Amino acid sequence: MSQKNIKLLIPVLIALVIWFIPAPEGLSQDSWRYLGVFIAVIIGLILEPIPAALIGFVGISFVAAVGLIGNSKESINWALSGFSNTTIWLIFAAFMFAAGYKKTGLGKRISLLMVKYMGKSSLGLGYAVAFSDLALAPFMPSNTARSGGTIYPVAIHIPEIFGSYPDKDPRKLGAYISWVAIASTCVTSSMFLTALAPNVLAVGMVAQHDAHIIVPWMEWAKIMLPLMIPLFLLTPWLTYVVYPPTQKKSPEAPAWAAEELKKLGGVTFKEYLMLGLALVALVLWIFGKEVGIDSTTTAICVVSVIILSGILTWDDLLSDKAAFNVFIWFATLVALADGLKKVGLIKYLESNISSIFTDISVTTAVITLIVVFYILHYFFASTTAHVSALVPVFITIAVAILPAEQVLPFTILLLGSLGVMGIITPYGCGPSPIWYGAGYISQAKWWSLGAIFGTIYLIPIIIGVFIFL
Hints:
The chain is mainly α. The protein has helices spanning 3-20, 29-47, 52-66, 72-79, 86-104, 106-118, 122-136, 143-155, 158-161, 174-191, 197-207, 217-242, 252-264, 269-287, 295-308, 314-318, 321-342, 345-353, 362-375, 383-401, 404-420, 432-437, 443-468. The longest helix has 26 residues, at 217-242.
């Protein structure tokens, strides 16, 4: 039997075993069986024997077919509910923003400008890579597209100017650039709600919780920016200290960037337009609530203008497989998470797990939840799988033990850790395999650096508990 078939068989067997085990007291048999399907989907997302979106699609199809949610009409309405979720459309629209950055060349130009003006030293190059990511982060919810698709093609050529290759002098510059790039994108992924697709997915999930926790873009920024900005500014320097390059000066890099900018030519009208539309979207994401404009409304309106103006064509939209893949994938996961509530599993968890935390202080309980949530990422090769498996459970516990006014800040701190936890393993987030695959950093070194930076990156989240709760 092939490895792929074994990976496919494991979640199926788990679902079958749970299916035929009697439900524990307090749960109906249908609820228990739904949990079995949900666990099988999560295991499938971890092993990924077939595309992740297909795993979620098969999961909702099976649940609807066997009627675990209700009658046939209730089941199909539930199964397709994720596709009408505003959060999912926000993610889809933001992928179009990323496509606009790529097609116009604006993202590449920003990265090259950073190198040209900041890249005279190795430390300056580190900050150039970091600030390139920061400039794109609020508008690109895929850190894979941002770091791996936009910054990587520019940054990976810089070490070669100095004779630094994966198999020859990797520590000269390549290893430093690689680590700064992945570490920076993890921090920026936590800074903004729209900088990481699983952030938006998780926000959509908590909005469907019985507590109806709504996380506005600005509320996220108010908590996460003060915590993440110092960390962001520290990252290139910290890497320079912990994992220093042997090449300290880099006078050739600005000249190379200037030459590449010449090849791009002058800034085009479409680049200016794309930048203007991105800034309009950002302003409305921040202040739209004050004038009654929903963030998703802003996103789809801007996408309409992007297409009507010719920045992207309708064919560009239809051919963006990554956007449609994430749309289907996340829509099915939102429905599956909502199903946990519909079958009564959330209430069951609330009454049976939250009692564990009743004998300790609220602060200790909150820190424990965040640290456990963070450390468990070692077991997930996908931040999306991490969100789907753990967010409903951890939010349920928090709602049970926290005063109502502390639920929102705790939710933001918990979900805000999703970005920075990506640093801990070579598979911790989407761009990790890309930068690891560049070959400049060995696996053993990546794990050790991940442990060091992962610990440092957790500290601001813990500090946030004392500031905001």
